[in-house]
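Please, structure for the following, as tokens.
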Amino acid sequence: MEEKIQQVLTRSIDRIYPSRQKLEKMLKSGKKLRIYMGIDPTATYVHLGHATNYIILKRFHELGHKIIVLVGDFTAMIGDPSDKSSARKRLSREQVKKNLQSFKEQIGKIIDFDNKENPVELRFNSEWLSEMNFEDVINLAAHFTVQQMIERDIFQKRLKEKKPLYVNEFFYPFMQGYDSVVLEADVEVGGTDQIFNMLAGRELVRQLQNREKIVVSTTLLENPATGEKLMSKSLGTGIALNQDPKEMFGKVMALPDEAVIQCFIDCTFVSMEKIKQYEGEISEGINPRDIKMLLAEEIVKIYHSEKDAKIARENFINVFQKKELPSEIKEIDVVGNMLVTNLLVQSELVQSGSEARRLINSGAVEIDGIKVTEFSATIGTHSGMIIKVGKRRYAKIK
């Protein structure tokens, strides 16, 4: 299994603590490792940026190791300060519960939760964190100093900018760290924005259990030209794993050309040999759009089906390259004159009147090919009328 071991040590991997050699030795020892990754349900969807880590967990699973998917339903109510210039908005239990509804289904597109020979565990950190009393929290906090916490780069930045830094934000790293203790984890996987939190867990495991936990930090999906994140729940950007196939295909095609190869590496199961071939073709002058089309088709195939991927590709070519209408357009049943904002909401192309007004102001709404410029306009509806919002949202009046 040498080839699979090398892939899990290198593909989409940023750093391994304390060293790659240490993890390689553990993987070759024959011991069944307990490997986990945590995700806070701060939105109703899981995006492609998270998928990178689940693909890595899948590779560990294929090597025979125990995989744990940890949902931070308790820590989500605190708010992870990682990579944030201001405190996160704290979520209520009701918000967290709502966000959790389809998590397993989305992650299950990658992780085999039905595997009977080596079952994958789905755990929730409210199991132990909600049971802690104030004495427990004090005892846990005693393992860290203020100096350790204040050295965190994002905290230093906020202090320099005189932005608020709340005491509860100090709790997050050691509470995530305590997850590693309870799960008896040998390895934790997470993005580079989680390194501080994961190393806090490594320290707790050392102090409380006198053993070593390996930390694997994975690459973040970023635009190589700007360094900006391509996927962010807090910013409301990204491609959700439960997105409609055509919408998913279109969003992949909207990614920067510079990000295509990295997305192939981090978000697909395409071999590195094939990816290097694509990279060579781009450097030789092929239109990156053609390679991006292959990427979009591959991603839709993973989360839907090969048939859906082909339909989405044909739809994209017709709508965006040939400037034709999609083969399938949602039909709505409305009669008479309507405010354009109400029409957009009723057609379910937008979620609210405020979103409709914002899109109209930005020039993103067309009716029968005519751009709508006034959100107070009244539209006389008719059978066959085509409503278009943005580049990919359509509705047709019956």
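The domain at 245-321 is CATH 1.10.240.10 (Tyrosyl-Transfer RNA Synthetase). Residues 167-183 form the longest helix (17 residues).
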